[in-house]
């Protein structure tokens, strides 16, 4: 229902269908727009002039806006009670198709099917090839394949021959169903009278997903040979799977061919290729693509930056990785715990423990705190830095990091606890004792080696040895 507390609009002295259309179009809240519509078209209204008949354009506009905002029952009701304003079936079908697609977008394909089946009686709208295709697409998109097959049989029985759009929906059903045999999809594809770019995109993706990359490339060549121009979707699919399979030279070749044919790569194209190159040990090539991406004003997202930094760290190109992080922040992108973690671990592996600890401090200053999802990641990063600092003998810095982890309630694992005790026992037994007390407070029982380390640390102090000797001498004399 429209909002109960909505303020009645100021009606013009003479209200026309054109006035109403402008009022509805100007109102941002679709439910308030519906209240305006109802007030102007009601059979009896104390605040409005004589009721008017709205134009089909107004009903279509309001139906679309209600559907887009998720008010599907209101949109359906409006279209049903306004059926009489549409002069023909052809005029009524576009807003009806929009409703069907809106039900699909909101994950309600069965409601779309119900609306479709009730259209002849409730809307006096006969079924058409377009409405069949819209419902088929909704059912396939939400994996209701048996219902889709049943509806296709109804479509044929009603005398509607499958169109190219119908075939493409069915092709998508075969290719998206992991249990379906790709040969069935190939047979269906060969039965399409005139496959279009959508048909080729679907079958190419289906072949790639089943590891049949060579056949997918043959399909790609076939469509080019038939003068069916590949789209950015076609190129991105092929490039993604080539990069994923390690065929980097082929992926780059098709990427450059894409530019020569005037097809502009999008963010997904770049991200797929960059991620594949980084995982395949081609971080330098990925870095070149990142530069090109920025020059083309296609700003990389955090995931793309993370892939590049991870690839550079794995290839020990740490200076370049740090430069990429700086560029990322200059472009307004905020690194997350995962991205910082990749760089920090890379620095630790390279023996650059103090720099790793500095980035850990930056991470804290940036307000990146652990949550339920990232808790184990934060613990792993902090333990890695502590281990690296102890291994490098940077015990003062290690204790600072340790205190920070305690302040933020980040867990220290038993191995790191032991390493801290062992390291501090050699030159700062008080800190070692504090770590042991922290262990006990967390119910982490020290192993024998940990006790040995702290006892050895105490015994190494000259004053402790002297006092022990005096006690021993006193005992032996008595």
From TrEMBL:
Superkingdom classification of source: Eukaryota
UniProt keyword terms in alphabetical order: Repeat, Transit peptide
A Pfam cross-reference name: PPR_1
Tagged with keyword Transport: no
PPR repeats: 128-162, 196-230, 231-265, 266-300, 301-335, 336-370
NCBIfam families xref list: PPR (TIGR00756)
Protein name: Pentatricopeptide repeat-containing protein
């Amino acid at each position: 229902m429209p909002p109960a507390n909505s303020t009645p609009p100021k009606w013009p002295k003479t209200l026309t269908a054109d006035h109403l259309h402008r009022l509805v179009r100007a109102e941002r809240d679709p439910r308030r727009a519906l209240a305006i519509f109802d007030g102007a078209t009601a059979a009896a209204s104390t605040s409005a002039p004589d009721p008017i008949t709205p134009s089909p354009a107004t009903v279509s506009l309001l139906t679309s806006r209600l559907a887009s905002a998720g008010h599907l029952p209101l949109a359906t009701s409006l279209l049903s009670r306004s059926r009489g304003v549409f002069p023909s079936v052809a005029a009524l079908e576009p807003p009806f198709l929009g409703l069907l697609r809106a039900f699909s977008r909101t994950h309600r394909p069965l409601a779309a099917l119900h609306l479709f089946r009730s259209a002849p009686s409730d809307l006096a709208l006969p079924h058409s090839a377009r409405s069949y295709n819209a419902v088929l697409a909704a059912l396939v998109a939400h994996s209701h394949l048996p219902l889709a097959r049943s509806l296709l049989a109804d479509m044929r029985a009603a005398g509607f021959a499958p169109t190219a759009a119908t075939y493409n929906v069915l092709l998508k059903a075969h290719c998206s169903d992991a249990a379906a045999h790709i040969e069935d999809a190939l047979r269906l594809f060969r039965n399409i009278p005139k496959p279009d770019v959508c048909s080729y995109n679907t079958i190419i993706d289906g072949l790639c997903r089943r590891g049949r990359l060579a056949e997918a490339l043959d399909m790609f060549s076939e469509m080019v040979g038939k003068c069916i121009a590949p789209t950015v979707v076609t190129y991105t699919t092929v490039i993604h799977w080539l990069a994923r399979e390690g065929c980097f030279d082929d992926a780059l070749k098709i990427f450059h061919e894409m530019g020569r044919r005037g097809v502009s790569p999008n963010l997904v194209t770049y991200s797929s290729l960059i991620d594949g190159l980084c995982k395949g040990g081609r971080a330098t090539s990925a870095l070149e693509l990142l530069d090109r991406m920025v020059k083309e004003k296609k700003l990389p997202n955090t995931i793309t930056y993370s892939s590049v930094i991870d690839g550079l760290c794995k290839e020990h190109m740490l200076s370049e990785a740090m430069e990429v992080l700086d560029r990322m922040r200059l472009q307004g992108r905020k690194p997350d715990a995962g991205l910082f973690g990749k760089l920090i671990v890379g620095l630790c592996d390279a023996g650059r423990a103090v720099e790793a600890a500095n980035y850990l401090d930056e991470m804290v200053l940036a307000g990146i705190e652990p949550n339920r999802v990232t808790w184990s990641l934060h613990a792993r990063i902090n333990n890695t830095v502590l281990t690296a600092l102890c291994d490098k003998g940077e015990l003062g810095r290690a204790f600072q990091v340790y205190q920070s982890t305690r302040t933020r309630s980040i867990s220290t694992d038993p191995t790191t606890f032991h390493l801290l005790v062992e390291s501090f026992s050699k030159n700062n037994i008080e800190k070692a004792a504090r770590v042991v007390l922290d262990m006990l407070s967390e119910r982490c029982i020290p192993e024998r080696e940990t006790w040995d380390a702290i006892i050895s640390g105490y015994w190494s102090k000259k004053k402790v040895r002297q006092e022990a000797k005096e006690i021993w001498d006193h005992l032996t004399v008595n």
